[in-house]
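Human: Here is a favour to ask of a fellow structure person. Comparing notes only helps if you start from a blank page. Give me a protein, with the fold worked out from its sequence. Please set it down just below, with no commentary around it:

Assistant:
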Amino acid sequence: MLQIVLLSDKTNALSSVLPGLELLSHEVEVVPLSSPGSLRRVQRPDVVVLDGTANLVAARNTAQTLAARDTSLPVLMVLTEGGMAAVAASWCVTDVVLSDAGPAEVEARLRLASSRTVEDSEDETLIRAGNVTIDDGSYTVKIGGTPLNLTYKEFELLKFLAQNVGRVYTRAQLLSEVWGYDYYGGTRTVDVHIRRLRAKLGADHEHLITTVRNVGYSFTAGRDSES
């Protein structure tokens, strides 16, 4: 069962905006679309169903406002045939549905919209560079599905380099970015951690971290290079 907020100014909104939704078992709260305080009442439901059948401009503006507040909030906009011709990617809606859609289609669109948000949220924690997958949420690194046993600083160093594929950083820059400006150790610390990272990456992947002579280090995912 999904928690749904229906934003609409219509009387008997649940039955008049999207009748197919009324036939489903989800919990639906109706919030006035035109009320200034309506958006503050939206406390992160599973899906927002937005009435675009009457005031299309207001619906578009509301969708964009919701997206600005929470880019991962799924918004399903209900439209008429005419509205379908006007909707665009800039409206920031997850999906659209015709007001006369049957309950099976409404259920499918709600399910896909909510699951897509979960997938997007999970992807936000992942950094992929070549064959390397770094999960910032669980502090894990895998190469081709095989996990690596890294220390915290090794993880942070690899993550920073992988987030900036192809860019070359001096030892001083890496020390500042990964260890912090108030770290009193020398740049030799960076060399030690790079050496340990390469050893853990193994012979098949150590080339991912390249040494730029007299400058520093770079991450070159997907390219063969000399180190």
Observations:
- The mean pLDDT is 84.
- Helices lie at 13-17, 19-22, 56-69, 81-86, 103-123, 152-162, 171-179, 188-201.
- Residues 110 and 124 are 21 Å apart (CA to CA).
